[in-house]
Every structure is written in structure tokens, then in C-alpha cells.
Amino acid sequence: MKLVGFGCSFTFGSELQSPNLDPNDFWENTRYREKHVWLGVLAERFGCEFDNLAEPANSNFAIGQQVTEYLSNNQDNITVCVAYTESKRMSWYDDYWTHNGFVTDQTGWTASCKEWVTKNTDKSVNMYTENAKLIVNSVCKYYNVPLIQFNALGTHTNKPYTNYLANGGTMDEWLKQRQEERNKTYFASGGHPNEDGHRAWVDDVLGEWITAKKLL
């Protein structure tokens, strides 16, 4: 069984850095990062292979399209794992995905264009997110591919889906609450979960829920 993960920086593993490597050595750090993010920890727990297709600053809109594209060519012996992100994110595709969190004047966009994109994204955030969930769930059902899903960030709903982890709120909220209760540090300096945070989420929440639901 292979776990195929989609999401934003919380699934990509931003800020997970091997202490034995130069902080600027991005590609050499990839194996360390992917092993210690929640998807890698989950794969280790259940004895699965994994493929991490998450992107920093990804939007739920893009996640829906990415899952669809992946499953059009791959359906055998996989489980799709989606960690949804903030609703106020948007993406567009032109040879590759561009996410509005990375739109700056330096990348060729004027300030007025960035303002327009942000303003119009805010008007339709709930629609984009709920449509993305419908796409992900419908495509997985069409190809008969198991699906595991939860909110990494954001307070959007999950009521229609029985295979959606709702207990404990978002991954971000749960970790912030538990680090205070346990006097632990579950976040790196930039606000992304550290190694202990990713493992705590799997050991105490996600892994237990998957076992109870018999999803893996």
C-alpha cells in the first residue's frame, strides 16, 4: 500500500531540517523532511510506502485538481491522504501551479493586480473549498480509491464526509493546545510543526482514528 499525500506546507514539511545538513541544502534535506512530516510518520506506523505531493502555500482549489490529475493515471494499491488548508488561498495553473501566497511585485505582478486577486479570492473562499472537497471525494469514489482527509489549517466544514477526521479540530489548533498542556514545543520558529509536532499528531490523533476506522 502506498499513501499519496496532498496539502500545503503542513504536509510538505516546511521547516523540517536535518541537523546534519546545511540549512540551504534543500534537495539533500528532502528525504529527512518527508520522513518526519506527518505523512511519513503515518506510513512508518502502518508499514506503507508514501509519495508526498504537497506544495507550500497550496490552496484547496489546487488540491482538488491535483488529486484528480494524479488519479487519472494512478489507482492501484494507494490511499489518498489530504490535509486541507486555509480557505482564503487561491491558485492558478500555467505550466505549473502558482499560489497567491507567493504573488509579489518582484514576480512580475503589480500591487493592484495582487490586490484584485486577493479581494476576489476572499469573496468566494467557501465555494472553492467546498467544491474542492466534492471533487476529491467524488474522484476517489469513482476510482474506488480509499481516502483519508482532515483539516491542517482552516475552520471550514467537514460534515458530509464520514472518512473526515473532525475530532480535535485542525492539526494546527490541536498542536497549539497540546503543547501548552504538555509543556512541549510542537512548532518551529516560522509556525510550522516540528518533528515532535508531526509525530504527536499521528501518534495521538490521526493514527488512532485510522485504526479505529480501519482505514489502513
Describe the protein's topology.
Layout: E1 2-7, H1 9-12, H2 26-36, H3 38-46, E2 49-52, H4 60-71, E3 78-84, E4 91-93, E5 97-99, H5 111-123, H6 125-142, E6 147-151, E7 164-165, H7 171-182, H8 195-213
Parallel strand pairs: 1-2, 1-3, 3-6, 6-7
Antiparallel strand pairs: 4-5
Q: Can you describe what's shown?
A:
By secondary structure, the chain is of the alpha/beta class. The chain has one domain: Rossmann fold (3-Layer(aba) Sandwich), CATH 3.40.50. Helices cover 45% and strands 14% of the residues. Strands 2-1-3-6-7 form a 5-stranded parallel sheet, sandwiched between helices. β4 and β5 form a beta hairpin. α3 packs across α8 and α4 packs parallel to α6. The radius of gyration is 17 Å and the shape is globular. The protein starts with a strand and ends with a helix. The model has no long low-confidence stretch (mean pLDDT 88).
CATH architectural group: 3-Layer(aba) Sandwich
CATH names the topology as: Rossmann fold
Unreliable stretches: none
Structural class: alpha/beta
Helical stretch tally: 8
Overall pLDDT score? 88
Oligomer: single chain
Give the tally of structural domains: 1
CATH class: Alpha Beta
Helix content: 40-55%
Query: What is the overall shape?
Result: globular
* Run of helices and strands: EHHHEHEEEHHEEHH
Strand line-up of the largest beta sheet: 2-1-3-6-7
Q: What's the quick description here?
A:
This protein has 216 residues and is an alpha/beta fold.
